[in-house]
């Protein structure tokens, strides 16, 4: 694998999932693979799980991880070609990226969308410019439209659950029903996690996949095509095996909050409609707004397992890139 | 030792002091003890000595130290149970802590009091919630009411001084007189260092312990009980062997500055009342406000030695926790 | 070498250049030299290349690098002797520096000038105070008036270019013409890089050295003495082998922008006056303000090579200090 910015960079999804679970079973089995190798981790936006799990993953491969908070430790970058830099940006990605390419073996970048201009955000200018100019493999730590390390983790977490000896029979010979449900939130959030989850579940191809959200919250078909869209949440939840809860702002009329109906918050009452579904969320989660305490603290929640699995996803990705170099 | 948040977590104070001084004599004697182990260091507030000395201590044990500045690199955490998170907090400690417990072997946390609500601060909600939910050992890097790594260092520093061959006779057969004196400051500070010093000196039990401060600056008896309280600073200083200088804001009428009399600043004139006392301070210190240049730059100051000893205190604590796991 | 804060700290410039190029050829040849050694990196100001390249250099020598952003992770330091600290500074360098000296083997510091008071800035108070009180070797990561790691890199980069087999004949038996040219910018910048480049080229002694800038932009003679000053940029550029582009604010009437004529920006048209000169810049660069896209993206630009060489300069400096300890 050369880069890791979307599922399209992954030559063999199942192999990557298996590699991650192998690291979970034996975290230090490749602790010399990354010897004398170094990842740079550039944060243009805040991060907790992604930051920490990727550092841990790198260390377990014997790599050095160097963290750089671009805004607070450095200065604003320019991404537009031919910019006349007389404003507030201090350094062009055309100059910064190739230098990162000299200092590091792999460059990991987190950048959020503006949620103001759809075309700009969906062009993925920032991560594309780093890919164009760095000259080394790029790993997305979440970009304007996608969050592939999260989505890989999500697939891993579902497969791990289904493979448990006590569950194997229940899933034998049938596809699990996976429901991605919109949830209320207090502010407009990116579509990244939802887009990316849809993209990966579709690429996995082993799920009966339903997306449910209020009208006007349609995601880009570029990612959802292949899933069934259902505006009635209760209908969608019926017999679900996994329910992935996530808020996103509108895509069509970009970056808005339309309907923010608190009735869309998942509760135990709604969970009763499912096939004892496991509940997932990428975190951070606004408790009792996006998801109720009763679900998060209940026996069906997979969120801590899921967040813990971020380490193995990152480790499998870094290892795959190291092996391809 | 399972956690390290107060002297009450320490099964054997003297053993911990001795372990620290053994690391000072041979810093790398256990450099494989922490192999493949990792501490997470979470800062909800700024830190210099604690941050750096703990990183150094971890490295000398062969551990990886991962630093995370919660506010600037992540987002605001929620600590209240059953909170409806529609405000400014982004992630609940109930979700964040167990994930830290999956990424790290030991979790170190710094958090300050609000100085607005005594009950909240003295409930130690933040550190208690991390202890409740992380599932791994918690080390306080200073909490709302205590600063145990500092206090352990303080005991180490006094014992180290007294054990010097040239001093041993002077301290033979008698307890040193230890005076904790309040000092002026420009803003209201937590009671942590003073509380914690009192708690540890009392637990040590080998000092004639006097606390001196203006009226209205009484500390909580939960920590000071066993010490003699003396409002006359000069009286208190008489024949002191160690003078610990520290400002704190009021405890009873919480978080205020009452009397801020500059006469309470320690000077060489006052030092003359003592038994050539060594002067200690946790740092940072406001020079010529809390403590005079003449004291800090004079031969009686132990502050640099004391700050240097922070490494060995942290190393002994981490090692003790690693050994108990 | 004991400290590294200016070319005057360097006993043998050529040996340091050669050591750097030897690390470029074999980065890990001394990976045990820094075993159990630790550098502290203190940032009072932002940094990207210097920060990252020094971390990389330390790692390649087997050292631990501990980064501390003084302002955001700690608090404001006081540098004035005898200060009564009742204002906004929280800790005196007299207290902080000796503690750094206990935690680290080498202390690296970045600090910028105020550009408000020339005497203060040119006294290099901050770095001098650290040298006075830390008790360990100090490495400047750029100070108020100089940027020696950059200048060492610049000499390395020119020598490396000239030593290429295809270029050796062209430079045989003659000194290269090196031109430092002022360039426009949007805000007042320090004189550090220009001062330091002049100081190092003069110390190198192997160049025909010309400095060109608009009138009123004279640099301090303490650094430029030995160079020819030429107000006509086109005249200066004639037959140049290396053109070093950099903005600086006025030195005499301190910290101002006088003439900011966009005509001073280097273009391909001006480059035609030179001897196919290689173009250098320390970065970050304001594209199309300080330097045109056509130059930066053209075949004559050495800026990425130059920034890459920062690693080897830092590695040679750290190694030289470790060897002298």
TrEMBL record, chains A, B, C:
Keywords (A to Z) from UniProt: Amino-acid biosynthesis, Arginine biosynthesis, Transferase
Gene: argF'
Quaternary state and interactors: Homotrimer.
Descriptive protein name: N-succinylornithine carbamoyltransferase
Pathway: Amino-acid biosynthesis; L-arginine biosynthesis
Record's function text: Catalyzes the transfer of the carbamoyl group from carbamoyl phosphate to the delta-amino group of N(2)-succinyl-L-ornithine to produce N(2)-succinyl-L-citrulline. Is essential for arginine biosynthesis.
UniProt key word Transcription regulation: no
Tagged with keyword Amino-acid biosynthesis: yes
């Amino acid at each position: 694998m050369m880069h890791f910015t979307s599922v399209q960079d992954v030559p063999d999804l199942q192999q990557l999932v298996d590699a991650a679970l192998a690291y979970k079973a034996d975290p230090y089995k490749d602790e010399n693979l990354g010897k004398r190798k170094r990842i740079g981790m550039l944060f243009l936006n805040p991060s907790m799980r992604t930051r920490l799990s990727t550092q841990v993953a790198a260390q377990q491969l014997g790599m050095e991880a160097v963290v750089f908070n671009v805004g607070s430790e450095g200065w604003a970058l320019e991404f537009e070609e031919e910019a006349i830099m007389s404003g507030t940006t201090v350094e062009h990605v055309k100059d910064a990226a190739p230098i990162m390419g000299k200092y590091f073996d792999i460059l990991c970048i987190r950048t959020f969308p503006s949620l103001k201009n759809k075309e700009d955000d969906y062009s993925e200018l920032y991560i594309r410019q780093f890919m164009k100019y760095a000259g080394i493999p790029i790993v997305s730590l979440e970009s304007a439209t996608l969050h592939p390390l999260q989505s890989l983790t999500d697939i891993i977490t579902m497969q791990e659950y289904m493979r448990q000896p006590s569950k194997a029979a229940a899933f034998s010979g049938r596809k699990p029903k996976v429901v991605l449900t919109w949830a209320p939130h207090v502010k407009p959030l990116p579509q990244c996690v939802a887009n990316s989850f849809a993209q990966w579940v579709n690429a996995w191809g082993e799920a009966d996949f339903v997306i449910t959200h209020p009208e006007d919250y349609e995601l880009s078909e570029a990612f959802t095509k292949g899933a069934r869209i259902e505006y009635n949440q209760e209908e969608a939840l019926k017999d679900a095996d996994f329910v992935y809860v996530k808020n996103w702002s509108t895509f069509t009329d970009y970056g808005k909050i339309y309907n923010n109906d608190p009735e869309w918050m998942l509760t135990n009452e709604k969970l009763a409609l499912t096939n004892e579904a496991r509940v997932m969320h990428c975190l951070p989660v606004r408790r009792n707004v996006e998801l109720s305490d009763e679900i998060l603290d209940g026996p069906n929640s997979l969120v801590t397992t899921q967040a813990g699995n971020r380490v193995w996803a990152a480790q499998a990705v870094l290892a795959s890139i190291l092996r391809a170099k």
